[in-house]
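notes to self, project folder thing:

trying the whole complex as one job this time. last attempt i did each chain seperately and stitching them together was a nightmare. two parts in total, labels are on each line so i dont mix them up again. if this works i'll redo the older ones the same way
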Amino acid sequence: MFRANEKISRAYPVLLVLTGLIALLPTSWLSWTRDLSDVVRLPITPLAHAGNRLAGMLRPVDASDGLHSEDLRGQLELLESERDRYERLYRAQRLRSQELAAQLRLLQHLPETVLRAPRPPMILPSDVTGRNPRDVISPVELELEPEIVDRVLEGDVATWKHQYLVGRVVRISPFRVTVLPVTHPDTGPVQAVLVDPGNRDITAPPPRLLLKPLGDGTFAGEVNHRHGTTVGDEVVLADPAWPDWAQALQVGTVEEVRQLDEAPLRDLVIVRPRFQLFELPHVMLLARDGEGLASGDATP
Amino acid sequence: MRWIVFIIAACLAVALDMGLSGAMTLRTMGFITPTFAGCLVAWIALFGRPDCVLWGAWVLGLLCDLTPGSMEGQGLVFIIGPHALGFPLGAWVVLTVRPMVFRDRILTLAVCTMLCVLAAGCVMTVIGLVRYWLPFAGGEVIPFGLGELVRVAGDAVFSGVLAIPVGWLLFQLMPLWRFDYGVGRRASA
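result (full assembly):
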């Protein structure tokens, strides 16, 4: 039978006690662990990167949901026609917007640079190298490429397929980039709007809501009961605290609607992102354009 | 036990836990995920010398604590302890039962992995809870309750299932490890 004192170094119990003490230290005293992690995991990161790629191939997040190739072809044609339609609408609105901006500039005697649209962001694809598959709100780490080192800053946005907002860059070390999911409580409340899928009333402003992360991968927010929110409605970002190019990215879809007993004119909505950061094999980082920032064109 | 083989295996196990195990997560069942590191702790605990086993379990736990899943707080610091204390306890449990089992069976490794992951999971949950309740630690809310314990048990069972193919591979590579404490059932009695 094994006994605890059998051929064990005397240093070992001391080490365990020290480990126990470190485990209970305040978070603010543990910043050194980040550097330790960076150094210790140097040989592990390439292997974890390969593992994540393999996991992405074995279990793709964007599977075709059982659609056959004919269905997919039909869906592709529909998407292409929709894309062309929205491109035409975008061009028409852009012309109208430029015309209005020019009129406003003349009326208010503003310099030309003031009303110029922000430069589009740089799109930098990056592979996930580390994640915790047990925790839906765990931060993930991305591969650090030279392009990312030069251009990505803390606060930049991580998206999936240019459409879904999944996280925000919170730390860039000499070895890796850490992204916190948008559903993490430390990200803070997010302002968003509900998108009316049926375009019922185009003149009415979309209802705004403040989404608070619940810590389980979902958000909760309140919305006017009269709006008639239904399960499946889309919610998109409309928060001035986030970069311009992150606006209108999809935050999630309404999973549950409950009328509040204490405020019957308001509904509590639970919003769940369609894709969670921890399940993605790679993401797209939207970074500020360095040239635009230097010339003062881009809005931070 | 050859330490160089253990270090390589530990790096590989932690890397697989950070990457490949995501493909095996049962997302509709509370994100139950198997752990390769748990299989490795049970493996060395079955065949290694007790002092090597305990040191190895601590090293492996430290590596696991420095992975993204252990981050906490606004500054995303790593909490050292949940695995670094949990794995030695899991190894100690396996060391305690190993004289009573047939060690050269894959099924034994699977059961020992379950015990090891269960013990380690309980330690991790307790540390998370203590950090949450201590006013100065700044620990975050953990979803503690029956659900958390069920998830730990689920992780243990799933890791035990994973230990069957991993164990087969480890048994094939047994000569590389050069365990010096004997591999027979009577060797550790």
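what i see at first glance: Chain B touches chain A through 64 residues (CB under 8 Å).
need to look closer tmrw
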